[in-house]
Amino acid sequence: MRRPVQSPRRGPRMDMVTPTAFTPWASLGGGVLIGISAVMVMGIFGRIAGIAGISQGALALPGAARDRDWRIWFVLGLLAAPLLMLALGGAIPQTVPQNLPAMAVAGLLVGTGTALGSGCTSGHGVCGLARLSVRSLAAVVVFMAAGFVTVFVLRHVIGGL
Amino acid sequence: MRGIWGFLSGLVFGLGLILSGMADPAKVQNFLDLAGAWDPSLAFVMGGAALTTFLGYRLVWRRAAPVLNPAFDLPTSRAIDRPLLTGAVLFGTGWGIGGFCPGPALTALPLLAPGTLVFVPMMILGLWIGARLKSSPAFIQGTAA
Predict the structure, then answer these.
(1) Which of A13, A93, A115, B73 is spaced 20 to 30 Å from B26 by Cα?
(2) Cα–Cα distance for residue pair A89/A81, rounded to 1 Å
(3) Is any Cβ of chain B less than 8 angstroms from the Cβ of A159?
(4) Contact A107/B122, CB-based, under 8 Å?
(5) From B26, B32, B57, residue closest to A39, measured CB to CB
(6) Are B41 and A20 inside 8 Å of each other by CB?
(7) pLDDT tens by residue, A90-144
(8) Inter-residue contact B128 to A53 (CB < 8 Å)
(9) Which of B11, B85, B116 would you mutate first to test chain A, the one with the most A CBs within 10 A?
(10) A98-111 pLDDT, tens per residue?
């Protein structure tokens, strides 16, 4: 079920890359949970479960929708998830890039881009595709392409952060 | 009630992010690394989430209205315009550099990795900048050009 996928084409400057195991079942199960949450938000509040928009609403940033109450609680639920996981004895494997200036730039780009583009992986990727929105499909294709190009340049042209 | 359901929805979303591997930037970056250590797991996350949502939406839309709000409120814009495409390029670039999109970044926050602690405040600053930029006349006028 879990087998590590190692690339035979790793170059000499690729040792910074942390290999991760291919986890189709856990990833599918996690995806279904994300979908259930998106359906809950639609069925209960009638809204798209886009995390960029929910964060904007919870923080009352400009352009945010008005019903702020449930969005604050949604973010608190997101924050509680890893704590519950750890309390239940689950492990959360995680490797976060350690280049802090790069992470600052990345955060700024992600925040600015999702606000400007009206959605992120959840808003456009999950909810938008589920609504068969062509606008969301365009956003997904473009941000995936930008992600592929960025990682290619970082890892295979520049040789890592 | 609204608070409880909001919290539960967020909790389920967060557990899904953790179980799926989305909250691990290494896994995201390996998914984006087609020419290297490619890990296709994230395609299963997106597929499972979008398919579940597709089916679930069609069930809940049979109701006249959502349970705790007067009406369904869906995005109405269909424009594939400059803010959408510029935003998607910026977001995809940041996603590739940091390995975090907004949900996983927030749910990873309590794990207190230094990279996350830098990423999240900058993301919030970016959300503010992006919202201001989206409503700026200069940017909107550029759309028509």
Answers:
(1) A115
(2) 13
(3) no
(4) yes
(5) B57
(6) yes
(7) 999 999 999 999 999 999 999 999 999 999 999 999 999 999 999 999 999 999 9
(8) no
(9) B11
(10) 999 999 999 999 99
| Average pLDDT, integer, range B123-140 | 90
Task: Residue count of chain A, please give it.
Answer: 161
- Domains held by chain B: number: 1
Note down the domain range covering B24.
1-141
Alpha-carbon dihedral angle through residues A94, A95, A100, A103, given to the nearest 10 degrees: -70
Q: Which residue of A has its CA nearest to B1?
A: A70
Three-state secondary-structure class, residue B117: helix
| β-bridge mates for residue A21, sequence order | A4
Whether A146 sits inside 8 A of B102 (CB atoms) is: no
Q: pTM above the 0.90 mark?
A: yes
Q: What is the three-class DSSP state of B46?
A: helix
Q: What are phi and psi of A57, to 5 degrees?
A: -65, -45
State whether A41 and B9 contact (CB < 8 Å).
yes
Residue A19's pLDDT band (cuts 50, 70, 90) = very high
Other C-beta atoms lying within 10 Å of the C-beta of residue A159: 13
Exposure of A18 by Cβ count < 10 A (0-12 exposed, 13-18 middle, 19+ buried)? middle
The H-or-E segment that residue A3 falls in is strand A3-4
C-alpha gyration radius of chain B: 18
Residues with Cβ within 8 Å of residue A87, at least 6 apart in sequence: none
Neighbours of A5 (CB within 10 A): 15
